[in-house]
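Batch manifest, entry 17 of 40.
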Amino acid sequence: MTDAGARQGLWLGLACAIGAGLAWGLVFVAPVMLPGYPPLVLSAGRYLAFGLVALAMAWPGRQALQQLSRADWIKAGWLSLIGNLVYYVFLAAAIQTAGVPMPTMLIGTLPVVIAVVSNLSDRALPWRRLAPSLAIILAGILLVNHAEIAALNGIGEPIRQSHESAMSQQAFGAMLALVAVVCWTWYPISNARWMQRNPAVSPSTWATAQGLTTLPLALVAWGLALAVENVAPSASGASQARFEFPLGPQAMHFVLLMTVLGLVSSWLGTRLWNEASRLLPTSLTGQLIVFETLAALAYGYAWRGDWPAPTAAVGIGLLIAGVAIGANAFRSR
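Output type: structure tokens
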């Protein structure tokens, strides 16, 4: 590949990764926009929409899909299960348990975690050249996290919880978010390696394949959510409101938001990420997941009608600077 072609591929890969981050950031505000919806319902609803979108995309792309082997479909199924359903169930549960900031910041460590794990195996860049960008990104994550936690402690909620109860919720939410981190560390590395080993398969075809394998899993998850929500109130014996299946108390909002998440966050985000995974080393794409964090923060601030505190603003600047330094290290390679 010529130098001009390599530069063009780098910039296209960067643009695709940024677009994927903007699409994925929406999923962080969905649980806050629909607080009365259990995490399993949110996950099943999003991925039902993803599967239906993929079903619509499958007909015009049927010839390319027919070229996939049985092993390819099994791989797509595993990616869908772990990277989609399991990941989002734990993420939504973490957000509803501990609020947006803390899970968002734990998920925000993904750029560093993925870059380190992928570079351990492929050695795409010497550690001395990879370390500066990772250190700056980590510093940015810590600063934003510190500012958000300080804001929560300063403002609080209208009905204050006891300190012990709040700490317990934060700890449980952190555990849930860490499971999501493990899921989404495995997903992009495994997905990128498959894309790089199968250059004949287009990013759109692979996104549609993942959506199609997600559809039956989402149907199972929807049935499980129905069973859980019907059993839980009677088992507890409390006068707790039963979830109004199938679409809940805000049916129109739920359908519209799930449609947006299925089309934009799931299908389009996956398609853009597949393109970036093909064009860029995984150690770099891992760092570019920081744009998901930045998008989630922007959407979260907009939803709250707030601006980042000075410490958070400095942290956001460090996140952007870290990614720029990392991209430059790979460009110079």
